Amino acid sequence: MNTSAGIRHAVAALRRRQRLRILLDGALFIAALVSLTLLLARTFDLESRIGLPVVPLALGAGIAVFLIHAAIALAVTRALGTTARRTEQKFGLQERLSTALEVSEGASEPVREALLSDTSVRAARLDRRAAAPLAGPSTALAAGLLVLFSAGLLVTAPAPRPAPLPATAEAEAPAEPDAEPTDTLLEDIARMADLLARDAETREESYLEAVSNALRELAEEAPGLDREEALERFMALAEHAALGYGDTPPEWMEPGQSNMGEIGQRMAAFEAAETARAAAAEARQAQAMMDDEYGAPILSSDALADIIRQGLLEPAQLDPAMADAAGQAQGMAETLPDGAPMSGGSSQPEPMEEQLMRPGSAMPMGAAMESGRGDSRIAGGGSQDLAESSEYMRAEFAESEEIVISAAETEPGSRIRIQIAPETSASAVADDAGPSRDWRRQADTAVTRHAVTPDARPVIARYFARSATPPTTGR
């Protein structure tokens, strides 16, 4: 192989590697794009939305794009000079390869031969893997995208369906719906009609009465109707009944129930409970009104004594045992005060005796403080004074003072504001003037007494305080 042929062979090998690199990158990118398309189609159900098979379209488009990419790659790398110039730029050969390819077909000259010889040596030393690598950053990116989208396809793949079991005679036979006897349907219709009629009378609801009448007509027509039609009309009337009850449905009607069997069971249970309650009430009434062996009502001794006192029955008309019991009850009643209840009897309510209400300012201070202690249990019943002189009490707590309750609104648990009208008197209390420590009056000095707060007067704070807690004793 001469020098020029060796150079051409080396450049052609580099071109093949470049083409293979371009085709590999294109194939990886196109495969990643097809995987992404399939993943989106499976996630968003594009096949049913657009009405076209997505998988064949994606594969066909990928193959077409790859062929177009391959044609472009072959066209771009067709000339050896292009590959030579790329190699020169990468390895710094200063246009030796491209120049050698151009002058290789010329006449033999010393300069040309020297160039070809030098270029041939350099071309033989080139590392083809370094000059035209098959994998690079673009290849790694395409491979990563392909792996990612392929993993997404595996994750979203539908679960395999189990193989169908061989058909049997029982499986081939259609399942029969749970059919209820016709007499049960008729019984439920009549039962609901009776319940609605009773509730319509109790609640005075004309809508329920109309539904009840429609159910009675359905009960008459049901024997001649198809069961499905009768059941459909019954369920429609049951919905109308629920609308008639509104927000207060009865015990036997549960909102939202659509099963005819459940409605019938609840109505039957409700009727059974009503029957049991009525029987219990009749039993209690029968126990309260029992007759003896002769058919006469059995009465208590208190009732017999009351009858004898009213003169409706003579003791001689009773047997000795009953007469003795009635006599004992009558004697016990005579020993009790008027209106007091006897054993087993009841007394008439009597109004309470009116009590004299006195203003708090008219009660002695000591009595109010001592109320509820010992023998003094009412306001005004105490005897301890704050001062030894009664004149002090008369001057300080005159009965003519007026207590005014403020009209301002108060919150629950707060005290009522008490205002005592100020009073001007021509007399006042003098200082202690002697060893007897008696209080004397001086008519020459005018003293004005101002209103005080409820806390300064325990009697007012006790009897005119609105407190959430009961007052303590001695306040």
TrEMBL record:
Q: Which UniProt keywords apply?
A: Membrane, Transmembrane, Transmembrane helix
The region called Disordered is annotated at: 333-389, 422-453
Organism lineage string: Bacteria, Pseudomonadati, Pseudomonadota, Alphaproteobacteria, Hyphomicrobiales
* Membrane-spanning parts: 22-44, 50-76, 134-155
Q: What is this protein called?
A: Uncharacterized protein
List, as start-end ranges, the regions of compositional bias called Basic and acidic residues. Answer: 434-443
